[in-house]
Amino acid sequence: MKRKGSISLFVIILVLLSFLSFTAVEGLTVGGYRFKSFGEVINRGLDLQGGVSVVMEVQAEKLTQEELSSIKTLLDLRVNKIGVSETVSTTEGEKRVRIDIPGVYNSSDIVTNLQTTGELTFKDPEGNVILTGSDVQSASGMLDSNSQPVVSLILNEVGAEKFEKATTEFRGKQISINMDGEQLSNPMVNDVISGGQAVITGMSSVAEAQNLAGIINSGALPYPVKAIEVKTVGASLGAGVMGDVLTASIIGISLIVLFMLIRYRRPGFLASVALGFYVWLLLFVFYGIDATLSLSGIAGFLLTIGMAVDANVLIFERIREELVVTNDIPKAIKSGFSNAMSSIIDSNITTIIAGLVLYYIGSGAVKGFALTLMIGIVISMFSALVITRRLLWMGVSMGFLTKPEHFGVSSNPAQKKKRDFIALAKYWRVISAAVMAIGIFFTATQGLNLGLDFAGGTRLVMEIGQEFDKTEIDEIVKTYDDKAQTQVVDNTQIEVRSQALSTETIDELIEEIQEKYSLKEDSIITLDEIGASVGRELTEGGVKAVVIAAALMLLYISFRFKKNYGFAAILALVHDIFFLIAIYAVARISVNTPFIAAVLTILGYSINDTIVVFDRVRENKKLHPGLSNKEIINLSLSESFSRSVGTLLTTLFTILSVAIFVPQIRDFALPISIGVMVGGLSTFFVASPFWISLEDRAHKIKK
C-alpha cells in the first residue's frame, strides 16, 4: 500500500512538473483562464527590450541623501512629463542617479532634457529678475492661433500680480524670457497683461515646446547635473537575444541531466526532477518580488543552475561512499545528507558573501547579476536539502532505489586510489608562475586592454542592412574623430569606437551614416557613452570589492575552521585573480564592468571548492590522528576528487553554453569559465600545499 501511494505521488509530481514547465515556457489557456508564461510576466531589463540608460551626476561638492533623493524625484518628473512611462530610476553612491527608460532610442533628447537645470526667469531691460519658475502654476506646449509652437504659462496668484506690475512698468519695452541663462525670447510689452497668463515664443516645434513645458512643470534642479554614462540598446538586440538564451539554457541543462544520469543513475534522474522544480521556483521568486531580469541576471541565473547541482553532487558522493561499506540504502542516505550538510552550508555562505559585496558596491547590471546569484544559491540549498531529500525517500518507498547499483556503485567496488596530489603541485607552480610572469610582462609593457567601461569613450554599433564599403564609413567617422576605430561585424553591421564625444557630435555622426545608407532610426543596435571618471571609480570600486570580499571570507573561514585554513584559502583566491588577469593581459581580452563581477563570482566559487576539501581535512584529522598533514591532505583530495570534477563540469556546462551561444553576455561568461577551471586547480595545488606548510610550521613552533 505504501509503495503504491509513493508511486502515485511521484507520478503526480512528474505531471505537475511537466505542467509547470510547459506553462512557464509557453503559457496555457484552460477554460477561458490564461496561465501566462514567465516570459509574459517577468520584467525585462533594457538590454532585453531596448531603450536608454542614463547615469546623471550631480555637480556639487557635498550632497545629502535627502537632496539626492529630491533630485531623483525631479528627474523622474522630467522624464514622465515628456510622455515616457515605466521608467526605473535608482540612486547610486553619493551623487548619481541612474534612469532606465524602455522603448526610447533617442538618447540625445533625453540627455538634453535631464541636463537642463530648469531655472526659468523673466528679466527687465536692465537684467533684473522679475519672475521665476516658482511663480508659474502650470505650463503646456501647443500651437497658437497662428499655428506657431509656443509654451503657454498660467501664473500663480503671486506671479500674476508680479507680471501685471512689470508689464505696467515696462510697457513699450522688452522683457526677456530665459532658461538656465539662455534667452528663449525677448518680446515687446504692448499692453498691460493681467489675468495671470503669459506665452513663451521662439520654439522650433511643438515637441520642443512640450519638452520645455515639462521642465518648467517639474521645477528647477537645485544643482546642475551631467550625463556621465549613456547607453542605448536597440529593440532588435533585445528581440534576438532571447532565442540565444533559450538555446544556451536547453543545451546547458541537458548536459547537466546527462551527466547526472551517467554518474549517479537513478538518483541522478531524481536530482534532474528536483532541478526542474529549482528552475521553476527561481522564476517564480523573480515574478513574486517583481524583479527585472537583464542579460547579466540571465548569466547569473544560468550559472546558479550549474552551481545548484553542486549540493546534489556532494550528497550523492557521500551516499556512494557509504554504499561501499554497507547495502543499507536508508542508512546511506541519512549519512550522506548528514556528512554533506556542513560543506553545503559553509561553501554557499561564502558565495553569498561575494554576492552581497557585489550587490552593495556594484551598480546597474552588476547588481542584477548579484541579486540573481544570491537568490539562486538560497533556492538551490532548499532544492537539494528538501526537494531532493524528499524524492530520494520516495524512491526508496516505491522500490526505485533498493541497491547500491542504482546509485552507480558496483557490487564489487574497487578501493579509491590514493593519489599523491601534493607531489603534482610543483608542476602546477611552474605553469602558474610562467603564466603570471608573462602576464606581468604584458601588463607592464602594454597594459591591460581596458574596455569602454574603464577607459571611457563612445561605442556605436549600427545595422547597415547590406554589405558595405568600410572605407566610406571610415571617411565619415574620421571627420568627427581622426583617432576613431571602426570594425565590420557580421558583414552588415559597423562598430565605431572613439574618444568621448558630445551628444550633439554623436547625433550628427549617426544622422550622416543614416543618410548615406537611407537607414531608419532603429538602425542603432547599441550606443554607449562613458565618461572617463566612471572608469577610475570602477577600478577603485573593483579593488575595494575584492578586498572586502576576501576579508569577510577570511573571517568566516577562520571562525568556522581555523586561521590557517583561512590564510590558505585566501592565497588560492589571490592566485586565481592574478592568473585571470595574466590571461586577460596576454590574450588582450577587453576588461569591462562584467570582469569585476566575474572576479568576485570566481572568489565565491573557488572558496566554495576549497571549503569542501578543508571540511574533509577537518573530518579526517579526527578520524586519522596518526597521519601526517601531507597524508591527511592527499587522503582528503582523493576523497573529494570526484565531487570537484563533477561540480566543475556541471558549472562549465551552463556557463560555457552562455559563452558560446549568447555573445551579448560573453563578457560575463568568459572570465567565469576561466576562473572556474583555475579555481578548481588552485584548491588542489595552491591552497592545500600552503595549508600543509602553515600547519607544519605551527607544529614546529609548538615544539
Write up what this structure looks like:
The protein has 703 residues and is an alpha+beta fold. The chain folds into six domains: 41 residues, no CATH class; 61 residues, 2-Layer Sandwich (Alpha-Beta Plaits); 103 residues, Gyrase A, domain 2, CATH 3.30.1360; 166 residues, Multidrug efflux transporter AcrB transmembrane fold; 196 residues, Multidrug efflux transporter AcrB transmembrane domain (Multidrug efflux transporter AcrB transmembrane fold, Up-down Bundle), CATH 1.20.1640; 74 residues, Alpha-Beta Plaits, CATH 3.30.70.3400. Helices cover 63% and strands 14% of the residues. It has 20 helices and 19 strands. The strands form five sheets. Strands 5-6-4-14-19-16-18-17 form an eight-stranded antiparallel sheet. The chain has a four-stranded antiparallel sheet with strand order 8-7-11-12, with helices on one face. A hairpin with a 5-residue loop joins strand 9 and strand 10. Helix 1 runs antiparallel to helix 8. The longest helix is centred in the middle third of the chain and has 54 residues. The protein is elongated.
